[in-house]
Amino acid sequence: MGIRILIDGATFKREKKKIYLAEFVAEIDLITQKNGSLFVAEIKKSSRTMASGIKQLKYYLYLLSIKGIKCKGIIKIPKEKISMTIELQEGDVTLIKEKIDEIETLLSKDNIPVPPKIPFCRKCSYFEFCWN
């Protein structure tokens, strides 16, 4: 988490950073406006986590759409000078709703399975949810 704070804190000085959506237990890295449009950004340390970062960003876009906030997303990787615009598509909404249903079904069971520990777990910002 410390590295991540250094990256977005030192790189994007003018934008609004660390927006908490307490109702959804979500933390948006950065919100900015560009050409009159609102953008939600997810800042990553490297492109190795690009696929999961896109899914995470689409989930944030979905949560905001529930609240009636229309915006686009941007994945930013400052060290690699990558910036990619992401938009929420109808297929994404369907997939997200399916995943939410799967999670709710899993949580309603008497015996919740222990998550598999993978090497990336130590670096994940959601580490506490799985292992504490």
In short:
The protein is of the alpha+beta class and 132 residues long. The protein contains four helices and five strands.
List the defining traits of the structure above:
alpha+beta, five-stranded mixed sheet, 4 helices, disordered N terminus
What does the secondary structure layout of this molecule look like, with pairings?
Elements: H1 2-11, E1 16-21, E2 26-34, E3 37-43, H2 50-66, E4 72-77, E5 82-86, H3 90-108, H4 127-131
Parallel strand pairs: 3-4
Antiparallel strand pairs: 1-2, 2-3, 4-5
Model description:
This protein is an alpha+beta fold. The protein contains 4 helices and 5 strands, in the order αβββαββαα. A 5-stranded mixed β-sheet has the order 1-2-3-4-5. The N terminus is likely disordered.
Low-confidence stretches: 1-12
What is the subunit organization of this protein?
single chain
Structural class: alpha+beta
Count of strand segments: 5
Helix content: 25-40%
Distinct helical segment count? 4
Shape: globular
N-to-C order of helices and strands = HEEEHEEHH
**Main sheet properties:** 5 strands, mixed
Mean pLDDT: 80
What share of the residues does DSSP label as strand, in percent? 25-35%
Strand ordering within the main sheet: 1-2-3-4-5
